[in-house]
């Protein structure tokens, strides 16, 4: 961070438009909704706030889940308006710490430095991480004539670091006996923006292929060569028009565009297919950590458990434990209670996300109820 964040009270009053335009004007104006009371809607089990405007931004990993949640919630709770800008985890954290949004979406927990900065936007309190949706980071490819591809952590690392440059490289062929691989040049596509998806891929490669991946677990891309694109949708768009390409993104993007995905050789008896179910197996084994009301998960990227996909992420919603403006708080609590509820989590697998383990979801709902 290069600048200390501006206090939330000031930005809510005068400067939001310069940060996120109409998005933040929707959420940041004080509109007399401080007396909003939850009321059960007739056609839903969602416990609605009567009115409110909420702005959020950040992770593209949760973009499709957020679209689903916003549609379902606003249908049941027409008095509340929600806007979410999928600008990447780095942007979402930065906007939240400037007081421009009521919540930020990030695929990695806040750093200690970011926690300290949050004291300026959470008067008398700090921000906390709330895990909300899980999913696999799929490695997709577009190779003419190839509809099945197995890679391991080492080959993935060397491909993205420009050490393996052709698809018929002996190391790739070894993992794919019987598959005719062309001599096509590999075009590796990575994120140009700071991204929690990138950080999770970095974390996987740093642990599972430490000899081949000397880079830190950061949101910024560090490896050599390749092509870059903004957002997961940008990576997918580049790959769709590039034969011989490989990239990484959330599974929902691959499914939406019909991109083939890599099976990972993890050392398990069979290569692991990426799916919501195999990601859930990885998330369920995660260690729950964090201090106080901060809830974070720690993954085992080197798992060899059958059917457990190792490149998983959880998107966290960053909120103030205390100090949220009174005209935003009721709607924010209501919306986050819904997203962490059984109702909010039940359809996630259908749109290629992994629901939170029930014990984690229950903990998140309990923490949301204490937000002030």
UniProtKB/TrEMBL annotation:
Residues 50-343 form the PBP domain. The keyword Nuclease does not apply. Coiled coil: none annotated. Keywords: Phosphate transport, Transport. It comes from the Bacteria. Pfam families: PBP_like_2. The keyword Transport applies. Belongs to the PstS family. PANTHER family: PHOSPHATE-BINDING PROTEIN PSTS. This is Phosphate-binding protein. It comes from Streptomyces xantholiticus.
